[in-house]
Design a protein that fits this description.
This protein has one domain. It is globular, with a radius of gyration of 18 Å. It is an all-alpha fold. It is built from 13 helices and no strands. The relative contact order is 0.16. α4 packs antiparallel against α5.
Length: 266
Amino acid sequence: MVKMEKLTAKDKHLLGAVIDRDSIHAPILSTFSEKGWSDTTDIGIYRRIEYDQPEELIRGVVISVRQRWNSYANQRERNRFPNDLWMEVLSASAVHDNQLFNKMIETLPTSGKGPSNATCDLIIYERLLATIRKTPLPAEHFKHNDFKSRRRPYTTAILDCIASLSAADPEVFSAGLEKLLASSRNDRTATAERRLMCIHAHGLWEIGNKVNPQLISTWDVSTNLPWDRGFHAFVQEVGEASKFISDYTTSSHLLNLIKLQELRPS
């Protein structure tokens, strides 16, 4: 496994911004069982970088994305549309939670709305699902539209990365990831942990590998934070996130999160 890289002054500054949080030093499973739902992805990022524990980041992301998926499933009867679940699709992909990733790709609905009457989240969601499913969207879905000026640079970078998945050009894809990493580091609306490491970039790399393995051929996997080269190597080595969730059986609530037959919709 590639060890945690040496942190830059900027990395250390971001890490220091979260060091006094009460739950940040405790292992993911004990934190979750004692305090219930919290943003375990952020805790996982911190523990990955501060303690060199990549398995904690996998656990943190798995808990987070499955909790969000359960929340959507429980609200589906109230006609809640899951347009913001594009973040969970990318995060599940990043940590090789292939069971949940495949479940989402198989069952998530699409809205049929065009970009003129859709939110930015919905456009990202629709384009991402269409790209993974290899179901073409109308050309206007990939044109810049009126709400462009209201986007964060980060969401613009996400959209550009998704477009590059269909370009079949490794250089374009690599440039998109570089832009996303830069936007992630400078995103003042994100938590310090998310600025320190961009889990969505890892998810897009994994999706690029699924959609067209040639796309990832020019990406330098030894790139520094917010791309985590050590975590990337670890995930490739372990293969499947389920290796790190077997100990969830000590908690009945967490056990429910890993039973896909209970993760509606089916």
